[in-house]
Amino acid sequence: MKKYFWTLLLLFLFVSTYGEKSTLRAYLSHAAFNSPQHGPYLETYLSILGKSVAYVKNENGKFQGAVMVTMLFKQNDSIRTFTKYNLKTDEISDTSHIDFIVFDQQRIPLPSGKYELQLEIADKNSTVPPFKAKDEVDINFSNSAIGISDIEMVESYKAAAENSAIAKSGYDFIPYQDYFFPENKKKLTFYAEIYNSAAILGNGVPFVVTSALQSVETGKPVENFYRIKRETSDQVNVLLSEFDISELPSGNYNLVISVRDKENKEVASRTMFVQRSNPGVKFNTTTLQDINIGNSFVSRITNPDTLREYIKMCFPIASASEKLFINYNLAQNNLLTMQQFFYSFWRQRSEADPEHSWLVYFNIVLGVNEEFSTMHKKGYETDRGRVYLQYGPPNSRTAETMNPDSFPYEIWQYYQIGNQWNQKFVFYTRDLALNDYVVLHSTVTGEVKNINWQYDVKRSAKNMRPRDTDNQLYTSPYEGDNFGEHSGENFNVKK
What we know:
Layout: E1 13-16, E2 25-35, E3 39-49, E4 56-57, E5 63-64, E6 66-75, E7 78-88, E8 101-109, E9 113-123, E10 131-139, E11 147-148, E12 152-159, E13 167-168, E14 171-175, E15 180-181, E16 187-195, H1 197-201, E17 206-215, E18 221-232, E19 236-244, E20 251-260, E21 266-276, H2 304-313, H3 320-328, H4 335-349, H5 354-372, H6 383-391, E22 396-400, E23 409-417, E24 420-428, E25 438-442, H7 453-457, H8 471-475, H9 487-492
Parallel strand pairs: 15-21
Antiparallel strand pairs: 1-2, 2-3, 3-8, 4-5, 6-7, 6-9, 9-10, 11-16, 12-14, 12-16, 13-14, 16-19, 17-18, 17-20, 20-21, 22-23, 23-24, 24-25
Helix pairs in contact: 2-4, 4-5, 5-6
């Protein structure tokens, strides 16, 4: 799973090979842990959709599928280690209704360092070429500091009957292999390990581990989503916890685990991106009733239409709960409630001078409206305006508007967004006169992902979809320009 911070080692890959013969669909994620006895290792979790596998009859007269999995770990073009194994499905009598998942877990010893992971998954009973993909892995555990493993999301767990490949700390875990939690998911369960607390703090020394959900937009903890666990220093301390997310609003969050010493100083932390869809949750306006706007700057805004427009301008930087208010409560036309919300919004961002923070933002919105407005939308309502307000001005901006082979598009590059480096957005429009560019693809966690964006930019895109023999082109659409234009080159340019 690709997480909000690239320093995390949990990777999500959607594996798909196009073709008329068969389609292989699988999910691969991995998490890094550190054993006091054996050193660091990478735990990989592979789930394959059973109905996407080709089946043949075996010697028992049953149908069975087989997939060959190869993972190479390279440093400076040298293979440091690899694993290659044959993964078989269960035997079945009927292939007309397959509803199971083939799951596999591996543990691969890997010293701390940066690696290029090369993955190949091949269906042994299909002539479709194997799928190939690659990504970076960064394992960083130190003996001279307290460390935290990757955060593993957990689908389910139970006490381990024996020491098995999936057992950790006396439990068998089935991982939840995504950062997206739909409405039907009511619990967010997670597991992590803390290392070296005894070596750094001393034997038997008390410390605390906190876990919290924070708003990505504000960086502040979400109310009622905060846990404290008191621990005593050891070689390894285990955190297995969960949040009830039935009332968590739709939005983007960071799950943050923090280790604090007895002076409450943070000595280690780990963060993981979480996305929630929960449209049934509404904003509770009673939380605003105790907010006194008094002689604040908001008390001078007495026109409901003006205040409503100001609040709508805040949507690009609003937290999940604040977006609920903007989406569902503005139509009620309650001036006092809107004033209380607006004041609360800016006081949370600058308690010392909320008015100044609002005026600075307001001037930026005016510039965004001037540059990005369309015939039907104000600038802050467009995708480019929203991205500009949410992440700031891009460090570089490449526009392609005159190429007859492609629709007009722009590529924005950010050197850094939070702890994510070299992040990019692709916007495009099918009508330059409208000036309404939409986000087609982004590398930023939580934004839309579209690895086929080059096909969609191409004016004859519907005739350019990959065939069976196009797997390499499909897996790495940015590496070359086989489209008669320069979208890949523009995307990969380093500035």
